[in-house]
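Narrative summary of target 7.
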Amino acid sequence: MNNTESKTLNGNNERLEYLGDAILSTIVAEYLYKKYPNKDEGFLTKMRSKIVKRQTLNKIADKMGLDVILKEYAQGKLSNSMLGNAFEALIGAIYLEMGYEGSRDYVITHILMKYLDIHELERTDDNYKSKLLEWCQKNDKVIDFKLLQKYKFDKRDRFKVAILINGKQLAIAEDFNKKSAEQQAASQAIKKLNIT
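Modeled conformation, tokenized:
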């Protein structure tokens, strides 16, 4: 594969990721709306966020074996976020091939119900950033998520983020995804502050 082909493939993949992200979010929203007829918007929004977040998508992609396919074509080291990106691109491709109804049925039956434990997700709360923001609000603390550095690593953007509370740096984390870096830093901050 030459450089031009690689750039074209990357551009197409990013377009498929964009489409897959939007389609997956819609499918999950509809699925949750029907599965939980008596739950309010707040619950549904949290559940959707838990399902479509990068960490969950990475796990689903890994269980599906997308890492095996990616290792054949990846130029450089394979990262977890590449799994989630490939998963979103796959959803985009399924949508283009099958339309909304076909892709919705396929994703729910062959992916979500097969690779996701919805009841375990109900019980877990791993939105550390949200938890930390709530704690700061209740305790009159000023919180700031500060981007310390954005740099290239294995031809990809990497983000280094710090959390400052009342101007004091409390935690630092980095990842290929800015939101993931913020979540990791928030998790560290929660441990340091002994927030339960």
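Residues 57 and 170 are 28 Å apart (CA to CA).
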